[in-house]
């Protein structure tokens, strides 16, 4: 999403999921066990201000996975919606298969932002 940051535009959105623009920019930080290669913690931060009210619209999600501790910043929720966040470059045959199975597809830029939309 470096291009989204450089261009700095507000971008397009569908169902409050942004296809492009500054709202897609995320910062990803992770740590892993150097011996096993297993992830032990991660943070996704979406840092930009809301241009409408100039208040921080920052979102930050974190998680920890240790042998005796597993926790995260989100409440456990179960969503029954069939929405998948994909890249605009996804192959048409994959898009057709997903929609034929009842999924609604929403396009967005950036791996970190797509992960964040799934979590939220």
Automatic annotation (TrEMBL):
One of its GO terms (molecular function) is inositol-1,4-bisphosphate 1-phosphatase activity. Gene3D superfamilies: 3.40.190.80, Fructose-1,6-Bisphosphatase, subunit A, domain 1 (3.30.540.10). InterPro entries: CysQ/Inositol_MonoPase, Inositol_monophosphatase-like. It comes from the Eukaryota. Belongs to the inositol monophosphatase superfamily. This is Inositol polyphosphate 1-phosphatase-like. It comes from Diabrotica virgifera virgifera. The gene is LOC114346253.
């Amino acid at each position: 999403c470096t291009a989204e940051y450089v261009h700095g535009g507000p971008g397009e959105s569908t169902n409050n999921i942004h296809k492009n623009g500054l709202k897609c920019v995320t910062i990803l930080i992770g740590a892993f066990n150097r011996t096993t290669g297993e992830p032990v913690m991660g943070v996704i931060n979406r840092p930009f201000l809301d241009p409408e009210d100039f208040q921080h619209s920052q979102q930050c999600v974190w998680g920890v996975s240790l042998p005796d501790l597993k926790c995260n910043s989100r409440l456990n929720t179960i969503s029954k919606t069939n929405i998948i966040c994909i890249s605009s470059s996804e192959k048409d045959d994959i898009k057709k298969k997903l929609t034929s199975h009842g999924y609604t597809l929403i396009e967005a830029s950036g791996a970190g932002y797509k992960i964040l939309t799934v979590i939220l």
